[in-house]
Request: fold
Amino acid sequence: MRRWLMLGLLFLALSGCSAPCSEDAACLRVLFIGNSYTFVNDLPKTLTRLAQSGGQRLETGMAAPGGWALSQHVNSAETLNQISSSKWNYIVLQEQSQIPASETARKTRMFPAVRALVGKIKTADATPMLFVTWGHRAGWPENGLRNYESMQLQIDQGYMEIGQELKAPLAPVGFAWYKLVKQNPQLDLWQEDGSHPNEQGTYLAACVFYAVLFQKSPEGILYTGNLSVENARLLQKIAAETVIGNAQRWNLP
Reply:
């Protein structure tokens, strides 16, 4: 955990923007607020490269100290400055991995933090977006969630509930993750810790964000990162099936 925290603090200090857009109205500018689930494998950079390969223009920023909850971002001068100091189109909120899976924790910690951040995001004239994350490979047995599936269902419920309340768009990465695990269990998405994403997990997340942000399927995009073409194509397909045609479910425009 200390390793992720130190790396995250470095990312917060150095996170700038990729592929600058200047004043190009056709370019989307997206700020990611979260923790190591966002900065491990550099999700914003993966998404940017995916977008470039798909003929889209995208600029990203990131505030993602390891282990942070959204309640910490609410009180972070650095995070609040990033929200207000640039003209973002979307600002993505990613909660700590366990909080959405606990009904008590999400109601007492996650939901108040999301409401507060969404208020600041709207004041900055940006659109808030919720990053629906994935469950741990082994679930959360200490909290009664004995396997991945039970934890994922709780996480989904938490994000869906606050998303509906605030009419905030969702990036349903966790839903795509679940779909992939059920259909292709041999394709692992976790690192050895059973929590953080490996490169395939990050690539799947990037494909979901691509479909959500541009309302286009990522299928056929040539950028595959370090993945085999076969695996990349499968992840692109899962992301497209999860997002495309389901705009109402995910509160998309």
